[in-house]
Amino acid sequence: MELLNYVGFWGEFLEFKKVLCNGNIASITGTTEANKEKNRYPFILPYDHSRVRLSVLNQDPVSDYINANFVPGGGSERDFICTQGPLQNTLPDFWRMVWEQNVRIIVMVTSLKQKHTVRPSIKTQHSTDKT
């Protein structure tokens, strides 16, 4: 049953992606060798025209990449940021994005486990959340 739901969801995702962008929106930056390891999934990439760009560190041109996009919400084209859950190697980039973009609220829309693996935590030591 779970496999059928996954296949159904995957099919809907691909159909939605096809209808939404008609296959014409570039997602090239996320496919470069230097950035591939920063993507949780190789088939879910940020669109180049609206991706969040981090400040460049130590003159390293690929240090500006995070798999995240600005999303309109009614006020502007940059009301929200959608991103993948950070990987262990992208946690510093995630927090740098939060800081640089002055993010005030983070909403996590996923489970804390993926199959039998616990996802990396984005909580800080200063968190008061007991869950």
UniProtKB/TrEMBL annotation:
<dbReference type="InterPro" id="IPR000242">
    <property type="entry name" value="PTP_cat"/>
</dbReference>
<dbReference type="InterPro" id="IPR050348">
    <property type="entry name" value="Protein-Tyr_Phosphatase"/>
</dbReference>
<keyword id="KW-0378">Hydrolase</keyword>
<dbReference type="InterPro" id="IPR029021">
    <property type="entry name" value="Prot-tyrosine_phosphatase-like"/>
</dbReference>
<feature type="domain" description="Tyrosine-protein phosphatase">
    <location>
        <begin position="9"/>
        <end position="115"/>
    </location>
</feature>
<keyword id="KW-0904">Protein phosphatase</keyword>
<dbReference type="Pfam" id="PF00102">
    <property type="entry name" value="Y_phosphatase"/>
</dbReference>
<protein>
    <recommendedName>
        <fullName>protein-tyrosine-phosphatase</fullName>
        <ecNumber>3.1.3.48</ecNumber>
    </recommendedName>
</protein>
<dbReference type="GO" id="GO:0004725">
    <property type="term" value="F:protein tyrosine phosphatase activity"/>
</dbReference>
